[in-house]
Amino acid sequence: MIDPGGAVGGTTRVAAVIGDPVAHSLSPAIHNAAYRALGLDWIYVAFTVDRRHAAAAVRAVRHLGLGGLNVTMPHKEAAAAACDELTPAAERLRSVNTVVPLPDGRLRGDSTDGAGFLASLDAPGVEVAGRAVLVLGAGGASRAVVRALGERGARVTVAARRAEAAAEAAALAPGASVAPLASPGDASDPATLERVAAADVVVNATPLGMDGRSCPVPVDGLHAGQAVVDLVYEPRETPLLAAARRTGALPVDGLGMLVHQAARAFEQFTGMEAPLDAMFAAAAGDGRP
Predict the structure, then answer these.
(1) Beta-strand pair 250-252/132-136
(2) So what's the pLDDT on residue 183?
(3) Is position 160 annotated as part of the catalytic site?
(4) How far is Cα of residue 157 from the mean position of the Cα atoms in its chain?
(5) pTM for this structure?
(6) Which structural domains are found in the chain, ordered by start?
(7) Which of 70, 112, 121, 221 lies 20 to 30 Å from 99, alpha-carbon distance?
(8) How far apart are alpha carbons 159 and 182 in whole angstroms?
(9) Which of 40, 42, 67, 76 is catalytic?
(10) How far apart are CA 137 and CA 165, in angstroms?
(11) Is 132 buried (19+), middle (13-18) or exposed (0-12) by CB count in 10 A?
(12) Do 118 and 148 contact (CB within 8 A), yes or no?
């Protein structure tokens, strides 16, 4: 066990996250808080890795004896190709955010984003099975979300500006449909307004809102009885979530997905149940799930 001063010694296990950029990542704070909570002699660090060396960095896990590796943008596809085996989620997405060293030296790649997303809905009691879910965006986060929603039986519509990307994302959920996405906040687009109003759950999987000003859809379509989920976690309350709160919809911020996907990686690395309260406290400063 690590001593009260947090000393790092020759027996300390090391886990890490790679990305470019990665200095902004909350993963070190979240994972190190979990290690402290359980008294584990582990430490978690961040490495900036150039895109050209992503595969080599993943393969180095086995040579350095790392306890585990998380992967963020832009390396998730390269990590999938560098692993020896993939979980069903990672195989379908061709994307890996968690690399686990196996006892025989092989590397298993997993994508914990979808499971983390569903866990973030379970906490506030958001039900998606059989309900209409509008997913905004068609990037990597959207693809993981769409696949998870499809497995849970949601009726998914993917709205994005690039029709081809939207179609690729929609193919990950049975029966999912595709729709165009109007300019951010364009209240004059009746089709987008109608789609927002008709959805039981609206999920923003775009970066819009990170600036504290942008909103991915016209907010006039939001109403009570909906759940509105924003995967952006900084700021904690985006303009979309603020509008949802004003209209009586249930706002769900992105911190839940961030922490729950980290918890699933932690459990694969250590074999121990993740201390969620400590991880939320490290990510948010107030411990709220």
Answers:
(1) unpaired
(2) 63
(3) no
(4) 19
(5) 0.92
(6) 13-111+257-284 (3.40.50.10860), 114-253 (3.40.50.720)
(7) 121
(8) 9
(9) 76
(10) 9
(11) middle
(12) yes
